[in-house]
Design a protein that fits this description.
The chain is mainly α. It folds into two domains: 1-156, no CATH class; 159-337, no CATH class. The chain has eleven helices and two strands. The protein has helices at 2-25, 48-57, 65-97, 104-125, 130-155, 164-189, 212-215, 233-261, 268-290, 295-318, 324-336; strands spanning 160-162, 319-321. Helix 5 (130-155) crosses helix 10 and helix 9 (268-290) runs antiparallel to helix 10. The longest helix has 33 residues, at 65-97. It starts with a helix and ends with a helix.
Length: 337
């Protein structure tokens, strides 16, 4: 029962993450400008008069009935996920009391979900501040990664003892992936996806003019510098360009790491999947630039990031560094051989 509940929550988290990207990319993040309801009501249907009045006052603004429904469906699913995770923590705690594993990750997950809910609130009430929106994206992927860890453990998949170098490589892969996703989230939340519209150069240059300081100043309003001025083209270029650099570094590392996973027969399919997912993600990134960010491809690019998180977390779980005594015994046996 616990394994099935974790699997359901993992699937629902993936849907919530992708739907959240769709809400953001379709400019529906403020479809209901309050929280947790919509104009204080349970659903957009109950707030129809207020929504129509807001839309009539500002036809091209962030509020409309379709946008309100997109935002609220995302909230409904996220709330359902929260209750499922509380149930997982409860069942995991009961199982740990019977000596059936640890409940630490499941209980910690409840804390992450609570903080994620607050980020969802602040995303709306603080009017889509880039730092908050990016943290909200990372929070969703953190929940996804923790559930992936719980699911792999619940399935009882074997953990393979490897050298410390390979175990470290798995951790580095996860860190690089998180950094790259953070850069991607910063691109999306600052609407910098089309700051460079040519490839492989940017504005016809290999190293374009950039304003890195304002680009990566965290505490500021959307589209503004910390001093309250409009964000320059050079700042948006810096945001986009650094994501490209990160894609090269993280992409090459993950491909090499996936090829190394293939050396272990039980992990061959995981390695193949990781390499294929990285290549697909790179293709989607290039297509988004060349095709001017069509909504389906932009959402698919976010889904690709979620898939990479699941695969990389799974690799980290299944690769276990040998204990020092075990490594020493192996060295001695090899020397005697």
């Amino acid at each position: 029962m616990l394994r099935r509940l974790i699997a359901l929550s993992l699937l629902l988290t993936a849907i919530v993450v992708v739907l959240g990207a769709y809400v953001r990319l379709s400019d529906a993040g403020l479809g209901c400008p309050d929280w947790p309801g919509c104009y204080g009501q349970l659903s957009p249907h109950h707030a129809e008069d207020e929504i129509r009045a807001a839309h009539a006052a500002e036809p091209h603004g962030p509020v409309s009935m379709p946008k309100a429904w997109k935002e609220m469906i995302h909230r409904y699913l996220a709330s359902t996920l929260g209750f499922l995770i509380i149930a997982i923590a409860w069942l995991s705690w009961r199982a740990s009391k019977r000596g059936e594993g640890s409940s630490a990750v499941a209980i910690a997950l409840v804390g992450v979900v609570i903080f994620q809910g607050l980020l969802g609130k602040w995303t709306v009430t603080l009017l889509l501040k880039p730092a908050i929106v990016t943290l909200h994206l990372l929070g969703g992927l953190t929940v996804l990664g923790m559930l992936a860890w719980l699911y792999v453990r619940a399935r009882g998949l074997s953990r393979h003892v490897v050298g410390s170098g390979m175990a470290l490589a798995a951790r580095v892969a996860l860190v690089l992936l998180v950094v790259q996703i953070t850069l991607g989230g910063w691109v999306s939340t600052n609407y910098a996806a089309l700051a460079c519209t040519d490839l492989p150069t940017c504005h016809g240059e290999w190293l374009p003019q950039m304003d890195v300081g304002n680009a990566f100043h965290v505490l500021r309003e959307l589209g503004m510098t910390a001093e309250g001025e409009f964000l320059s083209r050079e700042a948006l270029t810096a945001i986009h360009f650094m994501h490209r650099v990160g894609a090269v570094v993280a992409g090459l590392y993950l491909i090499v790491f996936g090829l190394r996973l293939r050396r272990f027969e039980p992990l061959r399919s995981l390695g193949n999947g990781l390499v294929a997912a990285v290549v697909l993600q790179i293709v989607l990134g290039i297509a988004n630039v060349l095709l001017s960010l069509p909504l389906p491809l932009a959402v698919a690019h976010n889904a690709g990031a979620a898939l990479l998180i699941v695969l990389t977390v799974t690799a980290n779980y299944r690769l276990r560094a040998a204990e020092p005594a075990r490594r020493t015994a192996g060295v001695i046996a090899e020397a005697r051989g």
